[in-house]
Amino acid sequence: MMTKIEAGTVVGGAGQRELDELRATIPDGAKVYDLPQGRGRIVEIPLSGEIGAGLWAVVTDHQWKRLHGLGVRGAWFLNFNGDRKPYVRATAAGKLTTLARLLTDAGKGEVVGYRNGDPLDLRTENLEVRRIKRKGGAQESPANTRGLVVDPLNGAR
Question: pTM score, two decimals?
Answer without folding.
Answer: 0.75
